[in-house]
Amino acid sequence: MGSAKNSTSAARKARIEEMRKAEQARERRNRILTVTASFVVVAGLVAGTVFLVQSQSDDSSTDAKATAGKFVTGSDGVKTWKGTLGRTHVTKTVKYPTEPPVGGDHHQAWMNCNGDVYTKALNNMNAVHSLEHGAVWVTYNSKASKTDVDALAAKVKKTPYTLMSPDDQQADPIMLTAWGHQRTVTGASDPNVDKFLEKFVQGEQTPEPGAACTGGLSQ
Fold first, then answer.
1. Domain count, the chain
2. pLDDT at 3
3. How many CB atoms are closer than 10 A to CB 81?
4. What is the pTM for the complete model shown?
5. 3-state SS assignment for residue 210
6. d(CA 173, CA 184)
7. Does the keyword Membrane apply (predicted)?
8. CA 148 – CA 133 distance, rounded (Å)
């Protein structure tokens, strides 16, 4: 049994290392593209304008349409959103039906999620974009102990495609969120933390697998 556990742990470490290397390669490509783009600024601006027109919703409305649906809790304690999760880039504020949100229309800029730990609350619209890229979002409120927060931060920093931030609007002390999925954990040592990361970091639920977790906002 110990052998099987070690094998699973080794496979997970190998997968995380693979993602880290892929992210580093992506960063190098992005730097090259940035230098190249400096010579075609005008073309880039035109392309960006077209993209915004195509991807953003009508700004005449006060709020973007909220996602319709409900949570269904599985035997493993993970809540899965049953309903349509919009993926439109919008500029108006989205009123999400859950806190933290598990998906829906969002801002075109994502939060950096390459093991990034934030000390201030995030704009949900940017964090949802990170979820779309396959990130797991660890959040906590004032009821979470400093010991748990520090331990979770250390774990996040070692795990590509994760991010962490405080959220005093959420109901439970510590919550884990992926696109369309969410669960509460009792603390940093809860075995469900690793189970959730293993399953949902760049998991099957990811709408845009392989999309960057760098090059976004860093607060």
1. 1
2. 55
3. 22
4. 0.78
5. coil
6. 8
7. yes
8. 26
Joined tokens for residue 186: 């009792």
Q: Buried b vs exposed e over 35-70: b needs ≥16 C-beta within 10 Å?
A: eeeeeeeeeeeeeeeeeeeeebbeeeeeebbebebe
DSSP letter (8 states) at residue 38: T
Backbone angles phi, psi at 76, to 5 degrees: -85, 0
Q: Which residue has the higher pLDDT, 80 or 16?
A: 80
Single-letter amino acid code for the residue at 97: P
Q: What is the mean pLDDT of the chain?
A: 84
Among residues 128, 126, 144, which one has the least CA distance to residue 189?
144
> 3-class SS at 16?
helix
Other C-beta atoms lying within 10 Å of the C-beta of residue 135: 31
DSSP-assigned states of every residue in 96-162: -SSSS--SSSB-SSPBP-EEEE-SSPPPHHHHHHHHHTT-EEEEE-TTS-HHHHHHHHHHHHTSSSE
* Angle (nearest 5°) at CA 217 between 213 and 219: 130
Higher-confidence position of 73 and 5: 73
Per the structure, the complete domain to which residue 115 belongs is given by: 1-219
Beta carbons within 8 Å of 9's beta carbon, 6+ residues apart: none
Tens-digit pLDDT profile for residues 21-48: 666 666 665 554 444 444 443 344 434 4
